[in-house]
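Appendix B. Raw example, untouched.
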Amino acid sequence: MSTKKQGRRRGPTGLYGQAAGFGLLCALGVLLGPVGRLAGQGPTSQRQRILDEPFRLQMDEQVPTDKRVIFDWGGWFRSSYWALDEDVDRGLPNRDDGYHAARWQQLRLWGYLNLDDVHRFYARGKLDYWDWNHATSYDHNDSDWDGANLDRGWYDFRLSRYQAAYGEPAGDLDLALRIGRQYVEFGSGLALSVPLDAVIASVFYQDWQLTGMLAQSISSTNNVDRSIPGNTKEDRCYWGVQLRYNGWADHEPFAYYFAQTDKDGGDEYVLPVPNRDLEFYNQKFGYDSQYVGLGSTGKFFHRDLQYVVEVAGQWGKSYAYEPWLLPPVGSLQEQENRQNIQTWIFDTELRYIPRDSRQSEVSVEYLLASGDPDRIFTPTNTVGGNRPHTDDRSFSAWGYRNTGLVLAPRLSNLGMVRAGASTFPVKQIQALRELRIGANCFIYHKQQSEGAASDTLSSKPNIFLGSEFDIYADWRITSDLAWTINYGVYLPGDAFACQKDRQMLYSAISLNF
């Protein structure tokens, strides 16, 4: 807690010494860079985001809010274990696809510098270590490091804070600026919710907020297209604008537009032709897209009912899968097969939060993301993806929603119903008053039955993907020590040839300091 650290000096004394120490922390995070592989060996990106999201929200709240704190620092360590029992064969060579288990150690250290409550600086480093059960990793490494990396690092300025600090009157116009590595989210995060190296500038006028973004993907980010040979990281530029209206007591509507450009777009690779010996073809890669979204958050006719609704459309250009055009025999013709992207996504959630002593809540959500019936192998990759001379109608973006611990599908060719509930059941017992339990139930279907979902085993032309039931418990034992456990079971639907259930167990203990 930042309040108990206020006034303590650590390291060099004096304002300039503290600023120098903070600058050294930032420099180390940048210079060290990624010294190990990000766990492409680890869980799927979507599953890893689901596991990390509660802790990301807690970590972002660790930024001190005391106006006159000059320098503060802290961090947390989390030790976790997870095991996934799929009992399926994905056909990958030299590895056991049915079972994966690992111990995952995570360390985060942050520093915060506040100059007169006008200029704020924040940096957070990360270091992870994966220790897999023998022969259960997603590649051939039983152990691996991820980091040290700069997880967050930004400078923040707001005009109203400057005016308050120096006794100037505040007007109707306010300005905010944040520069650096930060978490960027447009709308409710359906299409864009991801860390970026970004410049975010906002103008506030009365009840309106206009935000502009210029950003670059972080070099360690996994590429959304996993089929590019040897190129597992993405290099993209983003820009966009968002408008919010805050003048209504019960509703906050928003609208946004953003675009991303693939800096590796047009790269060409020579790949073997499937099911043809000694034949090769030239395949280009690249994915450039634009998004426009509308939505709102607020109360739904009652003070205890909260809602979120968002819809987004996507358009742009992607490359088709060249072998769809290959002639039966003879030389391979080289041609440009870049197709139009025309996709959409919709999500709405209703949350009931009764004002009881147990802080209970119940929620129901429906999500629908467009799919492409031509993409019979993958909804997002180029290889095995869209057919030439057809529009690419499979939604793909950088948003986030909780789609279940076990199946954890991407937001592509997906329909999902989720019902969830949570409560603090024993508030009357002091030792257990911070114990929260909850559950989520999911039902999945494809938007296009013949198209692929993100799980490549859903190859049958059937709309039903199955159902999942997740339960969890979070217990804040002390102000600095917490424990969580999650268990999920997934029951495949008719879109899967293999009907065996899958299970996952995850448990973690976290220490803040």
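End of appendix B.
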